[in-house]
């Protein structure tokens, strides 16, 4: 009898089956509401510091309830990331449209430079927030931003590669040259003064990119030094 009692105690005690909580079904998405929220959020982020932006204000500006806003964007960081990703997509489209509308390689470079500068200048505050609060981006959106930025770089590389193929630029690494051009545009964006004219700045960038900063004497001196090496 004692052995039977010990055997009974050794048996595992059956556990009740765990009930898995099912997510409560939400309302179906409202057509165009996500885009409306993003359009309402962009000027708020442009006008304020990141920490001063409140989701309540975005909800009010978009005409959506706060609960609805959180169904589309789980946090302020997620909303901010969506704005940045949408901006990168627009920039890529603007580069493609500018390049497609030009008739020759130099005109394509000029058109793309103007398009990129116009995009950067229109969103200056938003891009400044990116540099200040990039760490606040959710990890998945941070990776997606890197991927989409690579697509912008690829679009610029295609413009440069076309200019090389048509004999306007010297044969060289197209991706490296495109990155240099993007760097010049970022520098022009950061150095912008209130009275700067976008077209005038674009012309200066194109001139420096195509002709360089050296005058004939400087180029001759550089060639002499290069031959001596």
Keywords:
single chain; 229 residues; mainly alpha; Arc Repressor Mutant, subunit A; Tetracycline Repressor, domain 2; 2 domains; 11 helices; disordered N terminus
How does this structure look, described?
It is a single chain. The protein has helices at residues 2-10, 33-47, 55-62, 66-72, 76-100, 105-122, 124-133, 139-165, 174-190, 198-211, 216-228. The chain folds into two domains: 31-73, Arc Repressor Mutant, subunit A; 76-227, Tetracycline Repressor, domain 2. Helix 2 crosses helix 3 (55-62) and helix 6 (105-122) packs across helix 10. The longest helix is centred in the middle third of the chain and has 27 residues, at 139-165. Helix content is 71%, strand content 0%.
């Amino acid at each position: 009898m004692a052995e039977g009692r010990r055997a009974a105690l050794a048996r595992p005690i059956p556990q009740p089956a765990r009930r898995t909580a099912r997510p409560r079904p939400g309302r179906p998405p409202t057509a165009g509401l996500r885009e409306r929220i993003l359009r309402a959020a962009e000027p708020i982020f442009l006008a304020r510091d990141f920490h001063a932006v409140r989701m309540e204000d975005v909800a009010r500006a978009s005409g959506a309830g706060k609960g609805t806003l959180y169904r589309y964007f789980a946090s302020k960081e997620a909303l901010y990331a969506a704005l940045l990703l949408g901006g990168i997509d627009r920039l890529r489209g603007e580069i493609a449209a500018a390049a497609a509308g030009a008739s020759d390689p130099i005109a394509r470079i000029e058109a793309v430079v103007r398009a990129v500068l116009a995009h950067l200048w229109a969103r200056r505050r938003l891009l400044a927030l990116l540099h200040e609060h990039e760490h606040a981006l959710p990890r998945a959106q941070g990776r997606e931003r890197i991927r989409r930025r690579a697509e912008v770089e690829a679009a610029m590389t295609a413009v440069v590669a076309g200019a090389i193929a048509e004999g306007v630029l010297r044969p060289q690494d197209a991706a490296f040259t495109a990155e240099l051009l993007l760097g010049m545009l970022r520098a022009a964006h950061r150095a912008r003064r209130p009275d700067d004219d976008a077209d005038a700045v674009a012309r200066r960038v194109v001139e420096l990119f195509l002709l360089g900063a050296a005058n004939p004497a400087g180029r001759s001196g550089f060639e002499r030094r290069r031959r001596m090496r």
